[in-house]
Fold:
Amino acid sequence: MTDTPLDFGDPADLDRLRRRFRAWLADHPLPERLPDEPVPVFLHRWHRLLHSGGWVGLDVPVQYGGQGLSALHQVAISDELGACRAPGVPRIGYLAHALLEFGSEEQRRRWLPRMLAGDDVWCQGFSEPGAGSDLAGMSTVATPHEDHYTVRGQKLWTSYAQYSGLCLLLARTDRSAPAHRSISAFALPLDRPGVTVRPLRAANGDDEFCELFLDDVRIARSERIGAEGDGWPLAMTTVSYERNALDTGHLSKYGLLVERLRRTARERRADLPDGLLSEIGRCFVDYEVLAAHARRRTAERLGGQLAGPESSIDKLLMTRTEQRLYETALKVFPEEQLRGEEAEDEERAGAGELFGDYLYSRAASVYGGTSQIQRNIIAKRVLGLPSGN
Amino acid sequence: MEAEEFLLVRDMFRAFAVRFRIGSADEVKPTARTTAQEALGELGLAGLRRSSPPAATVQECALLAEEHGRQPLTTSLVGTVLLAPELLRLLERAEPSAHGGTPTIALAHDLRFPGSAPDSSPSRLLAWDCEGADSALCVTPDGTVTALELGATAPGIDLLRDIRSTSSESPARVLGRLDAQEYRHWQAYALVMMSSELVGAAGSFVRLSVEYARERRQYGRAIGSFQAVQHLLADATVLVEACTSATRYAAWCLDNESPARALTAARVAKAEVNASALDAVYTGMQVFGGIAQTWEHIAHLYLRKVRLGAMTLATTADLLTTLAQPELTR
Structure:
C-alpha cells in the first residue's frame, strides 16, 4: 500500500457534473411506483430514465456506451440521488468490470451498451446449494461439444433472476483440472430451454434471491466470457468490485442515515442516554472513516492499481459500518420496530423500512463472501501467511 | 515538496529511525536520548513548514510522524519538530522563540488540550514530548499562546516520551493569539500528527507480529497457518488500514479544506485511532504470546505509547459526544 502523499480530492470537473445532474433532475421528476409494481420493475424504469440522461456507466469507456470518467464521477451521481432520497443508480458496476476485463472486443460491444441502457438486465449465477463460501467447489457442469456446451446444475442466491434476461454464469468445464482452473464463465440468456427460475423469499420479506435450475441448457461457445478456465479469476475480479463501498453505492445511503441520527442527537440531546450519544458518534466515525478509506482506494486506483485482495479489507469495513449503523438506528428509533402491525402492505408485514434495512445489514457479513472468507483472503493474499500443512 | 524530494527526506528519516531505535526498555538512557535528539535536530525538519508557503504539506509531515511512530524512538518529533514550529508559524514568528530555544507544547494535567478539563489551572499544565525542549507553548481555547518554562520530570507510563511539569516560578509569557480559524487549524494539526504517530506504531507492531507468526512454530507448524491466528491478524490489519485512511485523509483536509472541515476529519481520525490502534496492539501482543509479556520485549514500549497516546489531546469520550451532533454552521 502506498506510503507517499495521495490526492484525496475530487476531480476538478466533479462540481460541474453535479450541477449538470441537479439541473437534469429538476427537469425529470422521479417516476412514481405504480400500485402492485414490483420494486425491481420500478427500479428498472428508473434505470432507463437515468440512462436516457447519460447518468449510467460514467466510469465505462465511451466505445462501450459509457462516459469514460472515473468511479468518483459515478459516486457523485449516487450521492446526489441519495441527497434527494431518490433510488440509487443501478448496481451494475461489478458486472461491467467483469466484461471489461475478460470479455472479447465483440462481447464488450455486444453486451456493455445494452447492460448500461437497461436493455439487458443481468444477474449473477455464482453460488450453489453446495458451494457457498467454498465457491470453487461448485458442481454445475458445462460439458463441451464441438460448437456449444450443455449445462447441468443448480444455482442459488441469484438476486433478481426473475427480472433478468442474462445471467453471468460460472460452471465447471474441465472436471480433471484443479478446482480454481476448471471453471469457465458464460453469458446465459435466461429464456433458454431448460432454465427454471424460482424466487425465494428473504427474511426481510423481499423476493430478491432466486434458485436457478439448469437442465441440459445449451450455451454457444461464443457466449463463453474469457478463455476456458478463466472463470475463477473473473469471479474474483467481479467480487473485488462488489466489496468496495464506492462501487456498490452504499456510502451515500449510510451517510443519509448517519445525518438523521446526528440531527436527532441534537434535537433530543436531553432525552438520549450518554451511551447512545456515544454510539451515534461512533456511527459517524465509522461512516467518515469508510468514506476516507473509499477515497484513498479511488486515489490508488486512479494511480493505476486494480482492485485486488485488499478489497476484502474494504468489505469488512463496510460491514462494520453498516451493521453498527442499523443496530444504533433501531435503538434511537425504537418505534420503527412496532410499525409492522399498521403496515397496509401485506407483503412487507413486520418490516418497516428501517427494520427491513436492518435485516439486510445482517446479510452484509454473508453476501459477497462471508466475513470469515474475507479474513482468510487478507491472511493469505495480503499478509502472505502460510496455509495449514 | 516534489515527489522525489519527499522520498529523499523520508528515506533519510527512515535511516535515522533505524539507527536510533530502541531495542528494549533497558536501552532508554539519558545520554542515548540526548544523542538521538541531536541527530534528529541535524536533519533540519523543524524548518519544513517555516517558509511561506510551507515547503512541506501537512500530509507530508503526517507521513513523517507515521514513520517516527513505527520504531521505538525516544526522540521528540511531534512536540518539538512538528507542533511547536507550526504554532510559531501561525503566530508568524520567524524565530522559534524570543531567545532562540526549542519549545515543545504544553497540555492539561491529564494530557488533553489545555482548557478542555474543568480544572486545568496554568500551574498544573504539563510540558509534553520534551526531549531537547527548553520551553513549552500553551494554547488556551481563546487562542492565547503563552510560553512556559519547564519544571521537573513528570514520568508517565510511556517510557519513550519525556513529559515534564511546567515551572510555576517564572510567569508565563504571552507570545500572541490565534484567531478562531487558526485555533481550529492548530487543534486539527495536533490531532493529525498525534494520530499519525500512533498509526505508525500500531501498523509497525502488527507487521512485526505477522512476521513472528510466520516464524514461530507450535504443533509442528507455523502458528500463522492456524486460522484462529490468521483471523486475529486480518482483523488487526483492517483496524490499521482504517486508522491510516482516516488519518491521511484528515491531513489532506488540512492542506485543502476549511479548518472546520479539517477539524472534524481530525477528530474522526483520532477517535478511530484511540480505539483501533490500541486494539491492533493488543492483537499483536496476543500473537506474540508469552514473550510479549516480558520487560526485554519491545511490545510494552508500543503498548505504553499507544495506551497513553489514546488519551492524549482528546479522549474517545470527548470525541464521540462532540461528533454525535452536526457541526453548528458558523
